[in-house]
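Help wanted!
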Amino acid sequence: MERKKFNTSPCSIARSLDVLGDWWKPLILRECLYGNARFDSMQFWLGISRNILTRRLTELIDEGLLRKQAYQDKPVRYEYRLTEKGHDACQILLALMPFGERWFFEQGKHPIELRDRKTGERVVPMVVDANTGKPLDSRNLVPCPGPGFEAPHDIVKRRFVEFFESD
Amino acid sequence: MERKKFNTSPCSIARSLDVLGDWWKPLILRECLYGNARFDSMQFWLGISRNILTRRLTELIDEGLLRKQAYQDKPVRYEYRLTEKGHDACQILLALMPFGERWFFEQGKHPIELRDRKTGERVVPMVVDANTGKPLDSRNLVPCPGPGFEAPHDIVKRRFVEFFESD
DNA sequence: CACCTTGAGTTCTATAATGCAACTTAGTAT
DNA sequence: ATACTAAGTTGCATTATAGAACTCAAGGTG
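Answered by r_m:
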């Protein structure tokens, strides 16, 4: 059966996952972010099958995260570059880093770190509240219907009753 | 063929994806975060197949993101709760939200928003640099070998030459 | 000129994962 | 005695994935 789609789900997380929710796509974006933008090179460093890489690249282009650009003619050769949307998606990669560093490597033994391109200063991604600048703890958060919430009332009620009754 | 594993990759992103990199696991975590912690209810709201849900839940438990807890005996019934690691993984869900809101919903028409459990204040996740508190733009970042980087020198060189030559 | 190499894909095949529906099991309610 | 609920299992048809081999166009080499 075909994979379930989330592109009509009333949830930002689900819709984002529809575009990014597999193992390869975020890693392909990582390679683009790292400046490794060509087919064979990506294939080598990722260890991905070539047919799968082809498919993922066209999906990422269709979804607007990458664009294909020729870097030479005769023979024409392409590289894949991040669009603005693609760069925005990299925020999610940045959020993956501290989680991975914390749980899968010894303290202070992370294999790769980020630096500012100009200053060379170390950069450590962290998720905060945009309004207060304070770190977020998911234990203190509750989901609420936003301005775009549309659903039959009984469903809403059922859903949010469930949200709030459980603690 | 069996899915490729990234759990030995020297990359925090790849290792994180090994645990979270599919469509369902982050959504299951979302349901737990939203307080929707029981099998049938999850299955209903997610629209996931029951056998897949079973498998994903046991994987999430094995990976230490969830724990199974009985909420009644006779008959014994369970709910799934986030561990500390699971709550930490929710940071990634938080990072998915602004991306989804920006690219898949009209401005100001997001269906769900987060509020502080105590104050009720709206909370908007954002990825910043932990040191400066400034927002991060992936265009200004370069990856560098970290303290835990271990690889034959020629590989390192090839890899990072590629990193820096581009652009 | 015949052959090799490079970059970027396609095609083919065996194995694994997914979605769907139906079935199980233990205890409770009518 | 039958129905219902929660939490799964089982079986089956359809897809997706990994891996390897093949294609194609252009340039370089002996």
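OP: Thanks! One thing I noticed: Strands of chain B lie at 66-72, 77-82, 112-116, 122-123, 125-129, 141-145.
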